[in-house]
Amino acid sequence: MSSALVPRRSRRARLSTHRRGPAGYAVLVVAGVVTLIPFLSALVNSLRTSGEIGSSPLGLPATPVWSNYGDVLTGDTFWRTLFNSLTVASLTLLFVLVSGAMAAFAVSRLRFRGRESVYAFFTLGLLFPAAVAILPLYLMIRQLGLMNTPLGVALPQAAFALPVTIVVLRPFFAAIPRELEEAASMDGAGHLRFFVLVVLPMSVPPLITVSILALVQSWNGYLLPLLILPGQEDWTLPLGLSQFAGSYLFDTAKVLAYAVLAMLPTIVAYAVAERWIVQGLTAGAVKG
Amino acid sequence: MRLMTQPTDAPAMPVRADRSRRGGFRALRLALFLLAPALALYALFVIAPLAQAVFYSVFRWNGLEPLTDVVGIANYQRLVTDSSFHRALLNNVSVIGVSLLVQLPFALWIATLLNGNFRGRGLFRVVFFIPYVISEVVAAILWKLLLAPQTGQVNGFLDAIGMEGLTKSWLGEPSLVMWSVLVVVTWKFFGFYTVLFLAALQAVPEEQLEAARLDGANRGKAFWYITLPSLGPTVRIAAFLAIVGSLQLFDLVWVMTAGGPVGASSTMVTYMVSSGIKSQEFGYASAVAVTLAVISFLFASVYQRAVLARDNVESSGVAR
Q1: Which of A152, A262, B199, B210 could potentially form a cystine with A141 if both were Cys, beta carbons 3.0 to 4.6 Å apart?
Q2: Terminal CA-to-CA distance of chain A, rounded, Å?
Q3: pTM for this structure?
Q4: Residues of B in Cβ contact (< 8 Å) with A38
Q5: ipTM score of the complex?
Q6: Domains in chain A with CATH codes
Q7: What domains can be seen in chain B, in order of their start residue?
Q8: A-chain residues near B282 (CB < 8 A)
Q9: Mean predicted confidence (pLDDT) in A108-115
């Protein structure tokens, strides 16, 4: 399925028909370098002092100033925000996977009156930007006493990830052959055991896809944490970084070191699981 | 979308003759049990706030005191004449315009250059996708520092090549700030569309291109008559995602400029957040939210009916 969205290398017969001319290659190289400039600049300047950056923005580090990283890594803000982001993302993932898979199973393999309406109700969420709900959500979380708690961010994040999760999982669950279900029921397994013992193990790829989508959205999320987590103790990584940049703007070098460290987990994950991540994120494109 | 056709939607499940009425009831009970957590989460945190936004939008309210001051459609009337809101709306429209007219064609161009087998192809694809993977907050901070008037590398570069005259306060001048935002938005998101287009390009039948070329069609003609038509569904989905994404632009702008200076780079969502959280005008901010919701909803429904429906029929409805 969505693996088809990820460019797969097809070796056959393409070599001859698609040779890259020097002009095309040059365009790609220029576009690639321009794409990377903000990252390269951040890396280089995170190893200088803010004074050096101020006096010559384009210069290279005379001697690498590792203390920028040292200061961020020994301060408690970075680690605390990292930990908070991990907590929020794990909770979001847990909620959306459990509730989303259960619901997707119900709307794909159980026959009951109103099934299509329930499914349509879930897809309704794809038609509105999440931001529309943000102010009432903020007031509700405040009333529920969930301000400055990971739950206050994770529950709404999971709720907003549900529609795309169900939309992606449903066709997979539906495609599992009926014979398997009949065989399971011969062996005395009910719907629930069939779901847990057959459907879930067979659906690992789409489950990974929806997990990546939910994880990246939670990890990169900003608006919700901005409103729900005003207390410094509870800031997530993006929130901590933006506040750090706001208050330390005079110390450009440290902000850059923080930014580089903040994107490191993402870059490492991307390097390790590039295909899965590209596939997971482009699977959002099915939500037409 | 089109490529995801193997698993069929809406499984045809024959009603088995031996299924008793009691069985149907048990299925319903099981369905309710399985649906309960998702329905609870979704109703409480997605649907209820949407409904509340509509409700709040007819009040004048600071978000704290009891809801007493009903003002009817006054908040909406204010929107009609509020030039700050018009500015925000216009900015969203320009993001849509640049996304459709610059970002998507550029992404398609890069995708056609990437299509094929050659040294470094995989690396290029990875590189173009990186800006999309990192958070908007990180992207905003990297660019804010690049574009800083005194210490930024962009002005530093202009100085270095002797074009001091062109150095600007890229995020500080109301006439310039939106252009800077548009550049950053393009940088951040074009890689996503490049990957979408690349996947679609690889599904274009090689034989047809070969045949066209044998018939004497040059590259441009082959692209125009064969490649582009078969990219249709992907282009239509990409345009949809670009428009919907442009309507909800927030993080990037909020961290780079907070919508400033003097609202010059505000979007509907930044305007909503500043009206609500900063000015404590929750009723008015809710009217902004509802307007955004209506625009998105109308656009999404019309677009799906008029444009995407065709593709969905072709692809047995899996994209829905």
Answers
A1: A152
A2: 16
A3: 0.88
A4: 131, 139, 142-143, 146, 187
A5: 0.88
A6: 75-286 (1.10.3720.10)
A7: 79-314 (1.10.3720.10)
A8: 135, 139
A9: 90
